[in-house]
């Protein structure tokens, strides 16, 4: 039997539940953006955007006038929450490295069981785009990675040692995939939750490193 | 204080020369001094090293300089954005050099350059390709890379308002790299959307004091930062 697993929206919803009230959170480009609409506004999360926005509001949908002076890191039009502010780039990254980010939500090519993260460059490529990922990954107090459990070719993305060029070492604290939620503690992957309808054994088989499944529970999703 | 030189974009870039290192503000399309860039293009300079976060967006900003053949090297954090089509074409043909710098490291190297420091120690990039050839220094049990300060011959800065003293305020996230670049170049040119009288800017709100500014251009273009979505 082949695991079906979670949709992107379900993965994003599950990650959104991980954020605690009043956290300051940086959201990377790509898959992480799917998380924002699922975050309960009552939690009063402050979103940080690397280009100097503290208190970034939701993306602005639809056509109309685009304000190029208020774009997200992914260059999409956004709003500013009441009480939000702007800083220059050095201060924006001082905030990230300086320990003010409770969490960063980042996409990943690979995550290793020691917490190493790869998300900027493909193996053998001449170059890649780092953007703010290296600074944010080493600065945030928690790095929450969101990614599919396997590559399109069926290779595990959760591995014992990175084979992709690293972005930062020993930083990832939790991984949210289509098959479950995997915490990283003391150099080990711990399957905390498995997606409904997926067997624990299937997750182990799809993981390129030892997976601790002693305390795995089945994820509960909203109806 | 003597008023700063108010010029046209063409005059502002007059003293720029081939092979110069040039800071250009902006992040995506926000805070890019597009009129100054256009003036540099018209001057047909060659061999420039451009330091900016991105490598040009579609055919605007740094993409224009690349198109005109002015650029030898790009130093940036995010070269391969979907919209950086001009850069990617030249890079793949080996016609432009690239140095990729983590965004926060780039910001801090520029800040250090403006602050008279030789460099910074950052934990960013330890154990990655970025650390190659760099000194690693351990302090209190944590490893840091020694990153050199960065300065430029010229900075092209985009501001929202300028006064005749050269004092600047910015608009929203168009601030980005502009204030730190203004502090770290030998000759600083500002393109502001509007000019106001001395005293009109709240001293508490001025982000870049005029002492950093050498010349400015006021280009009324209320529509510049806004465009209609396709």
Automatic annotation (TrEMBL), chain A:
Highest taxon of source: Bacteria
A single Gene Ontology molecular function, please?
CoA-transferase activity
Keyword field contains RNA-binding = no
Which Gene3D superfamilies does this one have? Glutaconate Coenzyme A-transferase
Q: Provide the alphabetized UniProt keywords.
A: Transferase
Q: Known SMART domains for this protein? A: CoA_trans
* Keyword Glycosyltransferase attached: no
Membership in a protein family? Belongs to the 3-oxoacid CoA-transferase subunit B family.
Protein's name in the database: 3-oxoadipate CoA-transferase subunit B
Q: Which organism is it from?
A: Nitratireductor aestuarii
Taxonomic lineage is: Bacteria, Pseudomonadati, Pseudomonadota, Alphaproteobacteria, Hyphomicrobiales
């Amino acid at each position: 039997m082949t695991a079906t697993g979670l949709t992107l929206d379900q993965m994003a919803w599950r990650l959104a539940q991980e954020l605690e009230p009043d956290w300051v959170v940086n959201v990377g480009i790509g898959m992480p953006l799917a998380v924002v609409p699922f975050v309960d506004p009552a939690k009063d999360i402050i979103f940080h955007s690397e280009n100097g926005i503290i208190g970034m509001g939701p993306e602005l949908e639809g056509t109309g006038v685009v304000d190029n002076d208020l774009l997200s890191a992914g260059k999409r039009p956004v709003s500013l929450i009441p009480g939000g502010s702007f800083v220059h780039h050095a201060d924006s990254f001082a905030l990230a490295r300086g320990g003010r980010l409770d969490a960063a939500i980042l996409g990943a090519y690979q995550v290793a069981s020691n917490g190493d993260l790869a998300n900027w460059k493909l193996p053998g490529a001449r170059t890649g785009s780092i953007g703010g990922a290296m600074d944010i990954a080493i600065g945030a107090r928690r790095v929450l990675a969101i990614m599919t459990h396997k590559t399109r070719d069926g290779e595990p993305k959760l591995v014992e040692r990175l084979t992709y060029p690293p972005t930062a070492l020993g930083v990832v604290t939790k991984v949210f995939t289509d098959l479950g939620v995997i915490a990283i503690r003391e150099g080990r992957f711990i399957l905390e939750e498995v997606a409904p309808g997926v067997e624990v054994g299937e997750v182990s088989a799809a993981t390129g490193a030892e997976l601790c499944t002693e305390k795995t529970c089945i994820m509960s999703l909203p109806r | 204080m003597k008023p700063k030189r108010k010029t046209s974009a063409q005059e502002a870039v007059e003293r720029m020369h081939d092979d110069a290192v040039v800071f250009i503000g902006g992040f995506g399309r926000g805070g890019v001094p597009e009129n100054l860039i256009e003036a540099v293009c018209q001057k047909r300079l060659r061999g420039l090293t451009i330091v900016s976060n991105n490598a040009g967006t579609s055919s605007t900003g740094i993409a224009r300089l690349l198109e005109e053949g002015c650029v030898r090297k790009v130093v940036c954090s995010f070269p391969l954005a979907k919209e950086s089509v001009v850069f990617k074409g030249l890079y793949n043909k080996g016609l432009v050099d690239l140095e990729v710098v983590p965004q926060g490291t780039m910001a801090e190297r520029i800040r250090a350059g403006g602050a008279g420091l030789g460099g910074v120690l950052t934990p960013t990039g330890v154990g990655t390709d970025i650390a190659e050839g760099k000194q690693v220094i351990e302090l209190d049990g944590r490893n840091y890379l020694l990153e050199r300060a960065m300065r430029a011959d010229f900075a092209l800065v985009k501001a929202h308002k300028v006064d005749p003293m050269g004092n600047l305020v910015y608009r929203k996230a168009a601030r980005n790299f502009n204030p730190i670049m203004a502090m770290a170049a030998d000759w600083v040119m500002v393109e502001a959307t509007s000019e106001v009288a001395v005293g009109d800017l709240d001293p508490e709100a001025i982000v870049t004091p005029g002492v950093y500014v050498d010349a400015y251009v006021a280009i009324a273009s209320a529509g510049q930062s806004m465009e209609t979505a396709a």
